[in-house]
Amino acid sequence: MRVLVVGGAGYIGSVTVAELLSAGHEVVVFDSLVTGHAEAVSPGAELVVGDLADAELLDDVFGRRTFDGVVYYAGFIAAGESMRDPGKYFLNNVGHLINLLNAMVKHQVLRFVFSSSAGVYGEPDKTPIEEDAPLAPVNPYGESKAVAERLLRWYDSQCGLRYVSLRYFNAAGATEALGEDHRPETHLIPVVLEVAAGKLPVLELYGTDYPTPDGTCIRDYVHVSDLAQAHSLALERTRKGSAVYNVGNGQGFSNGEVIETARRVTGHPILVREAPRREGDAAVLVASATKVKQELGWEPRFPDLERIVESAWRWHQARPNGYES
Ligand SMILES: NC(=O)c1ccc[n+]([C@@H]2O[C@H](COP(=O)([O-])OP(=O)(O)OC[C@H]3O[C@@H](n4cnc5c(N)ncnc54)[C@H](O)[C@@H]3O)[C@@H](O)[C@H]2O)c1
């Protein structure tokens, strides 16, 4: 297939690009590099630097090439920031997404894989979370994904766009060549590793009074290579129509357990300072991944937290300044 990966210079997108290329697909990456890195784009892919805000450029990209499908990653990702600046999230994650969908419909490229998020569920009543749980986001980031999913239903019924929306939980880990380099970094595992590496003096642990066994938030971590594989399978699945899947390991780890694991893996003490809860953080988010396993045949190859943290640590040690090194 010839695939357009929008946001393919980012963390998860770049790993997917490598996976698609190794499966023999042709890949074009469209990315503004606002948070991504040109160095993260595998040499076998063509990189078009541009912003989804630029509808004319999108029209040109689709006009000059043929694509069988589009995989989308180009959203802003920090739930905490979205509480302070909701407009930034709605504009990019919804407004600019509409430019992409309109260009796809105009050029009749009608297969789409969408990066949604566990954030659509907010504070779910039941754990593990199934796909039919109510959508009740507790921050604008999650809301932007929920709104995008609602829009997609209309593009399906009115325009024939077939989509698979993957609601994934916490992406983590690295491959040998590709890893997580967000600036500023807000995700727990890379921040813990920055403390282990001596780049940060102390880890701010947000919230130790949640209703969980050790009082810290519980999350479901999924290896970035496993996520990439889910996107590949999802692209294939669009042939049969639209669908929504959770992607997670079905196992939750508290922030405290992640820190302990990182201490073991790195051999460093990792100093922690307890801080108040962050607004918009749910206490527990753990996926039921039954549907994606049954329907797509997805099976995580790296479900073990220790291996996930090890892979991220190896990447951080090989590239202490991220893609700048
Ligand atoms: N990282 C996670 O744990 C996680 C969890 C659930 C869902 N997601 C979703 O997955 C997607 C990718 O996450 P990530 O961690 O790889 O993020 P990332 O910031 O590393 O990647 C996003 C990429 O999109 C590009 N981009 C952003 N806005 C753009 C625009 N308007 N035009 C063109 N390019 C643009 C960025 O430059 C970057 O390369 C996001 O949509 C995010 O909401 C991520």
Summarize the structure in words.
It is a single chain. With 325 residues, the protein is an alpha/beta fold. The protein folds into 2 domains: 2-172 and 221-247, Rossmann fold (3-Layer(aba) Sandwich), CATH 3.40.50; 188-219 and 251-324, UDP-galactose 4-epimerase, domain 1, CATH 3.90.25.10. It is built from 10 helices and 14 strands. The chain has helices at 11-22, 55-64, 79-84, 86-106, 140-159, 188-196, 224-237, 255-266, 290-296, 305-318, and strands at 2-6, 26-31, 46-49, 69-72, 111-117, 162-168, 170-172, 203-206, 218-219, 221-223, 243-247, 253-254, 272-275, 284-285. The strands form 4 sheets. The protein has a 7-stranded parallel sheet with strand order 3-2-1-4-5-6-11, sandwiched between helices. Helix 5 (140-159) links the parallel strand 5 and strand 6 (162-168). Helix 6 (188-196) crosses helix 10. The longest helix has 21 residues, at 86-106. It is globular, with a radius of gyration of 19 Å. The site of nicotinamide-adenine-dinucleotide has 27 residues, from helix 1, helix 4, strand 5 and strand 7.
